[in-house]
């Protein structure tokens, strides 16, 4: 059904192109040129998110017109950027496993997703298979904050439902739930004084921060909610009562009410403990992304399950603890599931992918496009 040699050589070609977060231009242009060469009627556009976030490339959109009137419009997404160390990737295939040759990541996160989408489009076109409108979105700056899709204008998305190809695990795995996340940044303001001459005139921000942290609800809160204190910095010389400490925390939940409640509990604890000790807590809450939960009978889950079964994959549905572009696509009104593409040990120099999983993911994409056209 797919062309394995073509998939493998394209995967090698793409992971060799250095593609840091906010420096996705080269790979984006390669993909635009490839798609222009398909000879398929396609509209290509790029948004201004690159300028907004200080990168050299925006989110790239390809829109393919369907040949099945009334079929749902499908969104297929993958991200272009890679984590570090990403320069000079040399992919090596040995015994059916692809790794990097040196001290770099492989970049299967997320080029495995990109290649599966590219191959599926070629196959659909070459074999003139039935399909609805397809919108492909290659996002930038997914790593380190999901900033490409976060800053996207939601009106650019023109689809009824979709898939983000960006999970580790065996093809067939479908992520149907992901938490939302809030960042909670705290500055504890105390009062400085000479620690030896007049400590009673000071308010020790380090001590106040410590008291607040001892009372803070964090760690595993319940089955769908977690919280963490990630870093703390402040203070200086031992002869000075420190007047400033910064604390960086996060809260996550798949339930929006629980996320709000946990965030508020953390804010209240810092404010209450600081006030009780004559200090002041300046707390800022930033929404990193919203949660999503897809029903078993929703269009993306049904489509992915049926497509997996059609090609002999075992479909499984799972929840994740992490965020991805799908959190924003769902927030923007396009129900989107995350699909496993076979990548393993991502974000490490031990990253690898099975050659066979590259092909299975591409086959799954073709099956998904066909299945969606039948809905
Ligand atoms: Zn990824």
Question: How does this model look, in words?
Answer:
A hairpin with a 2-residue loop joins strand 11 and strand 12. The mean pLDDT is 96. It contains ten helices and 19 strands. It is α+β, with helices and mostly antiparallel strands and 375 residues long. Helix content is 33%, strand content 28%. Strands 1, 2, 3, 6, 7, 8, 16, 17 and 18 form a nine-stranded mixed beta sheet that branches. Strands 11-12-14-9-15 form a five-stranded antiparallel beta sheet. Strands 4-5-19 form a three-stranded antiparallel beta sheet. 47% of the residues are buried. Helix 1 packs across helix 10. It is elongated and about 85 Å long. Bound molecules: zinc ion.
Indicate the topology.
Layout: H1 4-16, H2 25-36, E1 42-46, H3 49-53, E2 60-64, E3 74-79, E4 91-94, E5 97-100, H4 108-126, E6 134-139, H5 147-150, E7 161-167, E8 173-178, E9 180-189, E10 193-194, H6 205-215, E11 219-222, E12 225-234, E13 240-241, E14 244-253, H7 256-276, E15 280-289, E16 292-293, H8 299-310, E17 316-319, H9 325-331, E18 336-340, E19 352-354, H10 355-373
Parallel strand pairs: 3-6, 3-7, 7-18, 8-17
Antiparallel strand pairs: 1-2, 2-6, 4-5, 5-19, 8-16, 8-18, 9-14, 9-15, 10-13, 11-12, 12-14
The structure holds zinc ion.
Number of strands: 19
Number of helices, counting only DSSP H or I runs of 4 residues or more: 10
Shape: elongated
| Secondary structure: helix percent | 25-40%
Strand content: 25-35%
Structural class, please? alpha+beta
Q: Give the H and E element order.
A: HHEHEEEEHEHEEEEHEEEEHEEHEHEEH
